[in-house]
Specification:
The protein is mainly α. The protein is about 75% helix and about 0% strand.
Length: about 280
């Protein structure tokens, strides 16, 4: 009994330490965003600003086109998430239900593709998009985001498809439904948590992505929010810390809000009682 209690206390302590580790950067970012320049230069920083101010937010919007950049990021992230899910869902269904050599090869490609660093693929991608005249274009950036998110999206959805009982599809076939009708009317609704989780992954990946956007987008009117954040760092590497923290805080809000809204749907079980008897 003592061993069980000690182990449980240790688990809670480790979990608490992990939560503190994750929360510390964000809490410090929020604190910095509301501090005055005088507090930011203090040799004895505090967690809670002594004299909270919104000047950093005003200065951030005055110095850089944050709203336009946020619009570019939102458009690219939403488009990439929707397209990746639309492509990955039927492919994942085929890979999960038909375990052929081709499906196994595709699964191997999914795993291997995640090992390639961004630097290794940026030159071929740049040349391909240049030939297609899609450099400095949100369309080209969305294409890159879809290609980059697709392998992991497939890997996620294959697991969700395999968790759907085949008895449901067999019952639909007995009722006269074809493969496409079964996928759309029977399997896809049960995959809603997986589809939402996959779309969330693709959205957050595209929203936070920096390297591809930096290389492929040249003009300020097309740049995304992560690239615009670098403009708060001067030529000598000195950061305008207050406005940078304010802008970075605003950039993290969409991911937090979206996850907070849909997290119940991700964790909720939708297969309970679904098997037809």
């Amino acid at each position: 009994m003592r061993t069980s209690t000690s182990g449980r206390v240790g688990q809670y302590a480790a979990l608490l330490a992990y939560l503190v580790f994750l929360a510390f950067p964000f809490l410090w970012l929020v604190s910095t965003a509301f501090k005055s320049p005088r507090e930011l230069g203090s040799l004895h920083p505090t967690w809670i600003p002594r004299d909270p101010t919104l000047d950093n937010f005003r200065q951030a919007f005055d110095e850089q086109p944050l709203l336009r950049a946020a619009g570019n990021s939102l458009l690219a992230a939403l488009a990439a998430a929707v397209i990746a899910v639309l492509i990955a869902t039927p492919l994942a269904y085929v890979m999960a239900r038909h375990r052929t050599r081709l499906a196994k090869a595709a699964t191997g490609w999914v795993v291997v593709s995640q090992a390639f660093p961004l630097v290794l693929v940026i030159i071929p991608l740049f040349l391909v998009l240049k030939n297609l005249r899609l450099i400095n274009s949100l369309t080209g950036l969305v294409m890159v985001y879809v290609v980059w998110a697709l392998p992991f999206a497939l890997w996620m959805l294959v697991g969700y498809v395999r968790a759907v009982p085949t008895e449901l599809e067999e019952a639909a076939a007995v009722d006269g439904a074809g493969r496409l009708r079964t996928l759309v009317s029977v399997t896809a609704p049960l995959l809603a948590p997986g589809i939402v989780a996959t779309a969330l992954f693709a959205f957050i990946t595209a929203w936070n992505e920096f390297f591809f956007a930096l290389v492929l987008l040249k003009t300020a009117d097309k740049q995304t929010l992560p690239v615009i954040l670098t403009h708060f760092i001067g030529a000598e590497g000195v950061a305008d810390l207050g406005p940078l923290a304010a802008a970075a805080f605003l950039a993290t809000l969409p991911s937090l809000v979206i996850f907070g809204i849909i997290q119940r749907r991700i964790t909720g079980g939708m297969l309970t009682g679904a098997v037809k008897s």
